[in-house]
Amino acid sequence: MEEKESVLKFHTRRWIKPEDLNPNGSLFGGSLLKWIDEEAVIYAIIQLENPKVVTRHMSEINFLSSAKQGDIIELGIVATNFGRTSLTLRCEVRNKLTQQPILNIDKIVFVNLNEQGEPAPHGKTEITYVKDRIANR
Ligand SMILES: CC(C)(COP(=O)(O)OP(=O)(O)OC[C@H]1O[C@@H](n2cnc3c(N)ncnc32)[C@H](O)[C@@H]1OP(=O)(O)O)[C@@H](O)C(=O)NCCC(=O)NCCS
After folding, report:
1. Could you tell me the mean pLDDT of each successive run of 10 residues in the chain, 137 residues long?
2. In a domain, 93, yes or no
3. Whose CA is nearest to atom 21 of ligand 1?
4. Collapsing DSSP states into helix, strand and coil, what is residue 132?
5. How many domains does the chain have?
6. Distance 87 CA to ligand 1 centre (A)
7. Residue 90: which H helix or E strand, with range?
8. How far apart are CA 57 and CA 39, in angstroms?
9. In which domain, by residue range, is 103 found?
10. Which in 4, 70, 124, 129 has the greatest CB count within 10 A?
11. Which atom of ligand 1 is nearest to the CA of 121?
12. Is residue 134 situated within a structural domain?
């Protein structure tokens, strides 16, 4: 499927606490990547309607600016490509109050698996919403 220009959805906010900091006193990259990984897999599970999805590939990660204790940040994810067995997402993190960009990842690729843990076609071609699926039942 053609890659589309899509709008990021910022669902999750985090309040940066002392345990999220590196020894220099700014946000630890490992903490941020853990939050992104969870946010992205939740997004992929919802879109593909399958809890058996795994991360296959992550493109370059750009740390654009740092965050400090007390900052509120928000994580944005959008699906940019529905493949046969894969789903590609784009991610941006920014400061909630200033909107300053903190990080971006152009491509996070998930693969839809079957019960045997093998790549399986997911049959999805575009972003769908749970509320519409329920309304259309
Ligand atoms: C996920 C896994 C089962 C896929 O097996 P595989 O033999 O690599 O599968 P394929 O080569 O058929 O690729 C599957 C899909 O990923 C895509 N893909 C593979 N490598 C890619 C890459 N480097 N960049 C972008 N897409 C990629 C393929 O294009 C294909 O997508 P499509 O079906 O939509 O065209 C296997 O690689 C694996 O188990 N990896 C480890 C996953 C993991 O443990 N992740 C961390 C924890 S979640």
Report:
1. 70 97 96 97 98 97 96 98 98 98 98 98 96 92
2. yes
3. 57
4. helix
5. 1
6. 10
7. strand 86-95
8. 15
9. 9-123
10. 124
11. 33
12. no
